[in-house]
Amino acid sequence: MSHDLDAIDRRILAALTANARLPIAELARKVGLSKTPVAQRIRQMEQTGLIAGYRVILSPLSLGLTHVTYVEARLSDTREKALAQFNAAARAISEIEECYMIAGGFDYLLKVRSRDMTHFREIMGEHISALPHLSATSSYVAMEAVVEQGWTGP
Question: What's the whole-model pTM score?
Answer without folding.
Answer: 0.76
